[in-house]
Write a structure and sequence with these properties.
Number of strands: 4
Number of domains: 2
Radius of gyration: 23 Å
Largest sheet: 2 strands, antiparallel
Strand order of the largest sheet: 1-2
Structural class: mainly alpha
Number of helices: 11
Helix content: 40-55%
């Protein structure tokens, strides 16, 4: 939903800071350092597959290390990467802060509280401290839609904020419809829906719709729009009472949000599009 710049850190950076932070377990520190080339090799595979939307092809629970056991790997992220006062926490904080307080999975509805493993660390330990696999996420997205789940086919892949097909971020595929209330004294409601461009291929169309449904964006966007709708309609009605025609009002108060949002699929932009096209 929201595109983020790739982290300015790679696998080697993580290994360096993580191992510096392993101060009370020399065997673990040496084991992790001895596997650095393997971490880097898997990072390259990740880069290759993220570019063509094929991360789902990685097999879960693959044993890839020699000196580092599964239990060793399980310790790295919580004990030496995300833990406060550890050197690698600098990378953690830099990645989280890059989201500027907006969760990329839900289009900025939630505030990122931690980092989500795009490919869950429990099933893909080789990516547990890979910066490219760590995405800022709000609690709802991290613990709900994402959790420990992962895709086993192309169509069920959530959009990756760092390095996915550009049209997911540049082209509009989220829309809204304004449904007025039968009671003139009450405001209506919005129905948000995913409608990718017809020019997209079948897989990308399915991925966009899956992301929209998995993260419950219709409900989340409608809730946010409902909070703003009374203000927009009050402005509209007051200007109508002053004798200003509907088209002029729409150009004055509805077109500005449509034109000013850089994020093309932002809920507020879609909301005002729906109001602009609605026949009052």
């Amino acid at each position: 939903m929201i595109q983020l710049d790739k982290p300015n850190y790679n696998s080697d950076d993580s290994i360096e800071k993580v191992t510096v932070g392993i101060t009370g377990d020399t065997p673990l520190r040496q084991a992790v350092r001895s596997e650095q080339n393997i971490f880097s090799a898997w990072e390259q595979q990740y880069l290759d597959r993220i570019d063509n939307g094929s991360l789902f092809e990685f097999e879960a629970n693959t044993h890839v290390f020699q000196a580092v056991t599964h239990d060793n790997i399980a310790k790295l992220y919580p004990n030496y990467f995300s833990k406060k006062n550890k050197p690698a926490r600098d990378i953690y904080d830099a990645i989280k802060n890059a989201a500027a307080g907006k969760c990329p999975f839900c289009g900025g509805i939630g505030f990122p509280k931690n980092l989500d493993h795009y490919l869950p660390k429990r099933s893909f330990s080789q990516f547990s401290i890979l910066p490219l696999n760590l995405v800022p996420a709000c609690r709802d997205c991290n613990m709900g839609a994402k959790g420990q789940s992962f895709a086993i086919n192309a169509e069920k892949q959530a959009l990756h904020p760092y390095e996915d097909a550009q049209h997911f971020f540049d082209e509009q595929w989220v829309f809204a419809e304004y449904i007025p209330s039968d009671n003139d004294d009450e405001v209506g409601e919005f129905r948000f829906y995913a409608k990718p461009p017809e020019a997209w291929n079948a897989i990308d169309t399915a991925r966009a719709k899956f992301h929209f449904e998995a993260f419950e964006l219709a409900e989340k966007f409608a809730t946010k729009a409902a909070e703003e709708l009374p203000i927009a309609l009050t402005q509209f009605k007051r200007l109508r009472l002053k004798g200003i025609d509907e088209r002029t009002i729409k150009e004055s108060i509805f077109s500005i949000p449509i034109e000013s949002f850089i994020f093309v699929n932002h809920w507020r932009r879609c909301m005002y599009q729906a109001l602009y096209t609605h026949d009052f």
